[in-house]
Amino acid sequence: MLALTGIMLLAFTLRVAVTDVTPLVSTIARDVPLNATTTGLLGMLPPIAFAVFGALTPVVLRRLSGEWLAVLAMTVSIVGQVGRALTSDTGVFLTLSVFAVAGLGVGNVLLPPLVKKYFPDAIGGVTALYVTILAISTAVPPLVAVPLAEATSWRVSTGAWALACLVAALPWLGLVRSPRGRTTVPAAPAPESEAPVGDDAPITAERAEPAVVPVIRPWRSPLAWGLVAMMGFTSFNTFSMFTWLPQIVLDAGLDRAGGGAMLSLFAFIGMPLSLIVPVLAARMRNPYPLCLVGVVTYAVGYFGLLGSSPGSVWLWVSLMGVGQASFPLALVLINLRTRTYRGAQALSGFAQGLGYAFACLGPLFVGIIHEATGGWFAPMLLLCAGLVVVAVGGAVCCRPRMLEDQLARL
């Protein structure tokens, strides 16, 4: 129960330091000088930090347990969130913002292997719960940021979310004191009869790890690269929509309030998907149809939006929201396509580290192409090219194969 509480609380922290600042940028700029360049840099920090610190997490996990690293990640994020709420210097604000989101980048990578470690027989259900909470943590801070800032100040509004990180660290502090929390792998290997390998092995089988664990190099596996493509270019599209959807629907005839409402609709549709997709994927030998649903609905939504009337915008935005289905699918595949806790660590760090590196380019390229062409058709073509990458990557990583088995054959 303590581990489940820790996983859910950790999931709730993973977007709060990102989405609590965006609605308050103009207010913050009264005390912290932020021009267009620094504001753009502030917007790019989260996916960049998720990429860099996510890629470094498996390296750190060779020396620290996941439980200790969860505590450390929350501590770093607390320092960043509280510190930037107290400063009036632009450079210090940006630096501490890196600290704030660095801890969250580590948490992104930690969650899938922690689910595998504590709940190997309930991967779909637990993943569904934590991805849903992750969606809630994306949607709630923007809704309360402005009212809280008006009632108190922007410093209180942005710093208060550090309390969530403090609470999230407490279960992991309790778990590091348990024997299971002090070790990251079982002490002895399982008998061969209990751990079938190869393409004919049951894909849900989990092999206990030996006391001496070899370094897992996921970049040698086609499965890992498929997951990078699927996760990275789903996020490429989603981050682009979080940045540009209000302007797209404004150009389609809605007012600014309507643009905010459509962005909220896009975000909230991700919540039921987060509950449904991991559970379905865990029951399917090859969940590639779920990936295709996301690709097709995203593309239909894009091109429907281009020629839509103001009254039909909600329909196309809803379809684009369904397109987010491939993100929770990618998260649950980290565990469904690995046999071991170490394998899940390595695959999570590799896929999320590189994936977020691609994701941060989406808003930038969409903006550049829109400015160059003056319309949204060319940016939509770029985003659809990203969806093709998602479809190809999903075809590779959804196949019933295991990371460790692929690497063992090399």
Structural domain tally: 2
**What portion of residues is helical?**
over 70%
What top-tier CATH class of the largest domain fits best?
Answer: Mainly Alpha
Between the first and last Cα atoms, what is the distance in angstroms?
40 Å
Helix/strand order:
HHHHHHHHHHHHHHHHHHH
What proportion strand? under 5%
What is the CATH superfamily of the largest domain?
MFS general substrate transporter like domains
- Tally of helical segments: 19
Q: Can you count the beta strands?
A: 0
Class by SSE composition = mainly alpha
What CATH architecture label of the largest domain applies?
Answer: Up-down Bundle
- Basic shape: globular
Rg for CA atoms? 21 Å
Mean pLDDT metric: 84
Subcellular location: Cell membrane
Main location: membrane
Organism: Tersicoccus solisilvae
Membrane topology: Multi-pass membrane protein
